C-alpha cells in the first residue's frame, strides 16, 4: 500500500520514460501502522486564531520570521519541514486538508500549473497563510530543453550557462515553480555512472565556475528577492564517486580528496548565494549523507556559515534503514534532523516522528526552530519577484540552439567538414539517433515541450529541401537493438549519397539516474552499423548523441569525422547542422576525459604519479613482443593491452581553423607568499576561419607534503580570433591559490617549485616555471567545530 502522504503520480508514458525510477516509500517506512501515521499527522489541539499572517507581517526579514515562529504551534513548525509529491492531476482531499492545516511546507510541481495554483490557494487559507514552496527538478530546461549539464560544461562558457539557467527559471516560474533541485555539481571521473550526464565534468575548477553561473542564472537575485527560482546545489557530497559507477553506492575517500576535489564546487555555489543544499543518497566514509553531521553541521553550516535550507534527497531519510545505519524511521528522523537536514523530501519520517522526538527530548525545539527559520527565509526571499516568462519563446529557443552549438565537440576531422551544401546532390542520414525527438533531450526533461524538439533528420530535410535529396534509414530500431535487420536498408541508402551523416549514441533510457552501464561501447548493433558504413567509399561523419563519454576508439578510427553532440536538447537538429555546414565553427572542449576502454576507468587528467609512472610513449606489451621492449617500459604503471593515455584528453576539441601558442612570460621567477603571479602568452589563429579557442592554464606543485596532481586547471579564457589575428593572454595566480587542504583539514601553502602550462587542452606543452618563496601568507578557514548544539 502506498502511503497517502507521499505517493507517485501516474505520469504519461512520455514523461515516465524520462523519469528515473525511485524506491517506493513502503520499502523503507518501518513498522508504523497506517493508524499511527494518521495520528501523528494531526495536531493535538485546535490552534488559536492567528494574531498575524505571513503576508501581513511588517519589518525586516529576521523580524518577520521571528514573529511567525513565535506564533506557530509545534505541528505547524514540523509541517514546514515536510515536502510531498501530490498524487494525480489534482489535490487529494487528505493533502488539501493537510495544506490548509499548515502541515505541509513544500510540494513538488506535478506537471500542471493549475495544481500548483490550487495548492497555493489552500496554503493561503491556512491559519498563518504561509505559502508553499513548489519544487521541481529543472535541471537543464523546463519546457525548452537545453543541452544536458555535461554538454553545457563542454562550452566552458559561464555566461552562456548563466543565461540558459535564467531562461529555464523564467519558464518554470511562469507555471508556479519556486525551487529547482539544480545545479548538480558532483565531480565525476567514472562515465559508467548514469548521472554523469547531470554533472559539470571531472574538474573542480571548471565545475565551480559553472556552478556559480548556474546559481546566479536560476535565482536572478537582486534587492534581497529571488526573481527566478531558488537553486539547490546537490548532492552533498562526493556522490559522483559512487563505487563501481553504480548509483546510490558507497563512497570512500580521503580528507584530501574530499576538500580539494569534491567540495569546491559546492562552496562556489553557496558563495554565489544558493538557497538550498541537498544531501547525497550515498554513505560517505561509512555515514549516509542524510545523517552526516560532520559534512552538514561541521562543514556547510559551520565552516561555510550556510544559512539556507538543507533538504534530503527523495526518501533518503527512511532509506537509512536499508543502509543498516538506523533500525527504524523514528531513529532515521532523529539522525537526519540532528545532523542538520532541515526538510524531509518525500518520506514519512519527519511528519510521523519529530513531534514525539521533541516531546522525549531527543530533538530540541530550538533545532526545529532553526530549520523552520531557514525554510521561512527562503519563502520570504521568493515573495514579490518577477512573474516568469511562458514558454516557448523565440529567445529561449535561440538560446538553446546557441548553447547546443557551443557544447558540441569536434573530435576528428580528416578534411570532410564543413560540408559544402551546394556540392551535395544526395545526403544519407543514417542511424538510430537521427530522429529521436524525446531521446535527444536527455535525462531530467520532465516537462519538455516535445512537439518543439527538432531532430537532425527533420531539420536536414527542411534545410536541404529543393537543394539536395535526403535519404534516411535508421539501421536499427533503437540504440540498444541487437537485430541487424535494418543494416541492409541503411547500406542501400548510403550508397546513393555524396556524404553519409551517421547518428549513433545512446537513448535517454541508458542515461541518468539509476542508469549505470558496465560497458561504455556503443550499445546494440551500432558498432557493426559503423563498420559497414565505413567500408563504403563515402565521406562518413559520425555524430554521437549520448549522456556520457563512450569508448569509441574503433569507430572513431573507421570514420572521417566525429562530432560529439551529447544530448543537445530541443534544438539539436539546427545546432548540429550549423556546425556540419560551417555556418558556425565548433568550439566545444571536453569537460571530462574520454577513455579508450571501460577498463581504464576511472581515468582523469589530474592524476597522481606513482613511483613508477609509465613513459608517455609507452606501447602495450600484447602484440608488441614483450622481449623487444626497452627496460624502461617494464614494471611501470600501465596496462599490458592498452596505452595508459586516454582516447581524448580533458579540454580537447578541434576547430575548422588552427591555433598556436607561444611566447610565455611570467611576472616573477620567485613569487612572495602574498604575491600574485602574472602569466602571459600569445595566441594566434593560424588558419583561415574566424573561430573561438578555449585557452587553458594549468599548474603543478612539484613537491608537497602530500602527493599532488601532475597538473591542475587553474583558469580558462574563451577568445575569438580572426584569421591571422593574435592576442596576448593574461592570467593571474595569487600565491594563496597555490595552497591545498591536507588530511588534517588545514589549508597550507607550501614553498617550492611550480610548473605552468598554457594551451588548448590538458596536454598543453607551452611551459614555464617559478618558485614560491617561504614566508607568511594569507590564511584560509577550512573547517570549524559543528554548529552549536543549541540549534540541534
UniProtKB/TrEMBL annotation:
Membership in a protein family: Belongs to the glycosyl hydrolase 3 family.
Entries under SMART domains matching the protein: Fn3_like (SM01217)
Signal peptide residue numbers: 1-26
Keywords from the named record: Glycosidase, Hydrolase, Signal
Name of protein: beta-glucosidase
The enzyme's E.C. designation: 3.2.1.21
Domain Fibronectin type III-like as annotated: residue spans: 693-762
EC category name: hydrolase
